[in-house]
Every structure is written in C-alpha cells, then in structure tokens.
Amino acid sequence: MAVGGLLCFCILAQAQSDSGLRVLIINSYDESTEPYLYPKNVFMSELQKYYTSPVVFRQFDLDQPTGTEEGYAELKMRLLEFEYAIKPPDLVVAMGPLSSAFWLDLRGPFFAKAPFIAVASDVTLADMNFQPGDAVL
C-alpha cells in the first residue's frame, strides 16, 4: 500500500487541474470484470484519500459486441477524443491487457501528455510499447 500511495503522490504532483483531478479508467470489458474489480475499487478509494480536491472518475468500457471487430477500437478512441476535446484527462488507468493495448496503440498525440497506468496480472504487458512516464502495476 505504501508503494501505491507514493505512486499516487507522484501522479498527483504531475496533474494540473483547476477543478480537481479528472481520471479516465478504461475497462477491458465492463466495470465489473474480475480480477480487476477489487484493485480498481481500492485505487479509486485510495486516490480520493490522498487528493484534497475533488476526483472525478469516468469509466469507459471496451466491451465489444460480437461482429463489430473491424474499426471498433478506432471508433471508441474517436469517442474519447470528442469527449475530451476541451481538456484531456489528468490521468488514464487501463484495467487489464486489452485496455492497455487499446490505449498504447491509439492514444496518439491528443492524449500524449496524460499520465498512464496499466494495471494487469498478465505478462502480456511485457511486449507493449510503453512511453517514458508510463507506469505498470
């Protein structure tokens, strides 16, 4: 828990927000998917303890309907770009390898400065193309 607190402190020091911290959580499937539900809930509650301003969480599910594989990820990213057109999130957290790959492949220059944390219990993260400043838990 001490490492998590230190990580939160470092991220918060980087975040520059006038009205609190805006956190985008990308779920690989839906927000109740195991084994990521418990760590996500702990992260959310701990972040609220360490940050004195309001913390606004936006959960974004990558749950994909069958038969919509072609272009689906790009469409989801365009939706995020539209939603955050005025101001990108202060922090992006990907829950699982699928959401981590989605973010790393498609974040582009629009979200390049948003700190990123990948949360996964899978070794598949080893082959992903992380940028300087990205973190893996």
Summarize the structure in words.
Helix 1 crosses helix 2. The model is unreliable at 13-17 (pLDDT under 50). Strand 1, helix 2 (37-50) and strand 2 form a beta-alpha-beta unit. The chain has helices at 2-14, 37-50, 72-83, 97-106, and strands at 21-27, 55-61, 91-95, 116-119, 135-136. It has a 5-stranded parallel beta sheet. It is built from 4 helices and 5 strands; from the N terminus they run αβαβαβαββ. It is an alpha/beta fold.
For the record, give the distance between the C-alpha atoms at the N and C termini, rounded to a whole number: 12 Å
Strand content range:
15-25%
Specify Rg, calculated over alpha carbons: 14 Å
Strand order, largest beta sheet: 2-1-3-4-5
Mean pLDDT: 79
Which structural class do the helices and strands define?
A: alpha/beta
Q: What's the count of strands?
A: 5
Number of helices: 4
Overall form:
globular
Largest sheet: 5 strands, parallel
Helix content: 25-40%
* H/E topology pattern: HEHEHEHEE
Ranges where pLDDT stays below 50 over 5 or more residues in a row are: 13-17
Give the topology:
Elements: H1 2-14, E1 21-27, H2 37-50, E2 55-61, H3 72-83, E3 91-95, H4 97-106, E4 116-119, E5 135-136
Parallel strand pairs: 1-2, 1-3, 3-4, 4-5
Helix pairs in contact: 1-2
